[in-house]
Every structure is written in C-alpha cells, then in structure tokens.
Amino acid sequence: MSSAERGSHHQVVAVLLSLVHCVQCMARSQLAPNQFMRKFCIYIPNQTDRLEMPSSVTLSMFVKMANYTILFLFSLIFLSSSHASVQDFCVADLIGPDSPAGYFCKNPAKVTVSDFVYSGLAKAGNTTNIIQAAVTPAFVAQFPGVNGLGLSLARLDLAPGGVIPFHTHPGASEVLIVLRGYITAGFVSSANSVYVKTLKKGDVMVFPQGLLHFQVNAAKIHAKAIVSFSSASPGLQILDFALFANDLPSSLVGKTTFLDPAQIKKLKGVLGGTG
Ligand SMILES: *[C@@H]1O[C@H](CO)[C@@H](O)[C@H](O)[C@H]1NC(C)=O
Ligand SMILES: *[C@@H]1O[C@H](CO)[C@@H](O)[C@H](O)[C@H]1NC(C)=O
Ligand SMILES: *[C@@H]1O[C@H](CO)[C@@H](O)[C@H](O)[C@H]1NC(C)=O
Predict the structure, then answer these.
(1) What superfamily would CATH give domain 117-235?
(2) pLDDT at site 113
(3) Which of 19, 154, 174, 193 could be joined to 137 by an S-S link, Cβ 3.0–4.6 Å?
C-alpha cells in the first residue's frame, strides 16, 4: 500500500468514526438532527432554496439526503483541521530504503520549499556518448517532493543523430512533449503492432505502461523534450543494455535472440558487455 493509499484509508476510517460520534451525540441530545446541527455545528441553508430536483426525487428524500450530506461535510471539517499536516505530502527521506510503496516520509517539520522545487532540468544533458542523447531524470531520487504523488518527469536531449534506444518503464506510463526540433517516437504493443510518428515542437505523445518504445532525433538540429511519468519511480530498462551490456553469456544471447555470434560480439564490445 502506498503512503497516499494509507492516508486515504485513514481518512475514510476517521470520517466514519466522527460520523458515528456525531450521530451518538445527536441521539443523546434529543434534538432533531437539524436543530442539533444548527445549535452545535454549522449554519444550514434553507433546503428549499434554489433546488433543482429530478421529478422522481421527492422532497422528503431530498431532506434526508441533505441531512446526511451535512453530517458528512461536518465530519470532513473535523478531519481537515486535525489531520491536514500529515496527509498533505510525504517528502522522501532519501536516507531510508526505497520500496514499492515509496520512501519513508521526511519529518514534516524539516520540509522546506526546496523539497518541492527541482532545477536540474534547466540544463541540457551531456549528449557526448554512444547514443548521442541524454535523459535527465527528476524521479523521486533526484526530486524528493514527488514521493507518493504518483508522478515524476525527465528531460530528453537528442543531438543530431541521437537516439533513446528501445526501452521500457516497468512502473509507469509516459507522456512526451516536444519543446524543440523533431523527434520520431514510437512504441510496440503486446500484439506487436507498431505506433510511430515524427513529432514536432508542441506535439505530445503517450506511451502506455510497460511497452517498449524509443525516440530518435529526426532532424539535423538538437531536439529537446520533457517527459512525464505516472510514477515517482518509473524505472528504466534499455533493451540493448539488457542484452549486450552485462555478462549474459553470448551463447545464451544468441539462443534467445536468434542473432548471429559476430553481431553479438560487436554489440558487447560497443556496450561494454562480457561473456
Ligand atoms: C429560510 O427561509 C425563510 C423564508 O425565506 C426565512 O424566513 C428563514 O429565516 C430561512 N431560514 C434560514 C435558516 O435561513
Ligand atoms: C432531516 O431534517 C428534517 C427537518 O429538520 C427532519 O424532519 C428529518 O427527520 C431529518 N431526517 C433525517 C433522516 O435525519
Ligand atoms: C560530456 O561527456 C564527455 C564524455 O564523458 C566528456 O568528455 C565531456 O567533458 C562532457 N562534457 C561536459 C560539458 O561535461
């Protein structure tokens, strides 16, 4: 269970408890619910003011609904004053371990605005590398404020000829917006259908969770994009690196990919794999 889910479960339990409490007080008071609310709780507007009811809803049904709604709102008012500080956020305490539910929360007293601001995407990543491209992440590890919020982002820079090779984010869907240049982007579905398009500045494309996808610079100028993820820790697995940048024996790579040994040797050499 993520910290956000835990928070909302606590909230539901607290709503129910304060509802029960309110109803008990009301029963003991021997006042009609509306009188009780007026006396002890909140102003209740005239229920007949500006009502637009479907004809099937009778006035008495509405009055009942209104009473319950007011009770419910009343409970929420209780809640929002007593629990606000622990439920608003859970800034990552990066000293502790990461887990599927995210990091532990930093002590709220020590949280500052800089936990919610990240300037690391202002600068272009270094594209002097084999892929002539750079991914600059603003995931929870770089940007602790996104912990538990189910989102994060990254900056893509592609020099002319640059490519973000086939990869997948096991934990998130992705949306990409092109800020400069032209990018040919695509993904392959589980049914092996290909969805590919050359995007220009301002275009947005979405990549469903877990599917293999890529981005290639489609022009002779530097291309820039911002991508956003539906997780604070989307994860990243690059297909070629998984195959050729480790010590998976070449014989097994050949067996499982049907590539010939010379090609495997070459790619292992380029990407730093052994075996
Ligand atoms: C409800 O409306 C009536 C008539 O407009 C008014 O006299 C009365 O004071 C109102 N009651 C409340 C609680 O606003
Ligand atoms: C709702 O309020 C009305 C008016 O005060 C009251 O007559 C009625 O019994 C209440 N209904 C419930 C379900 O509390
Ligand atoms: C970019 O990376 C290359 C290769 O690692 C390095 O030689 C170069 O100094 C870096 N450039 C900058 C501006 O950091």
Answers:
(1) Jelly Rolls (2.60.120.10)
(2) 97
(3) 154
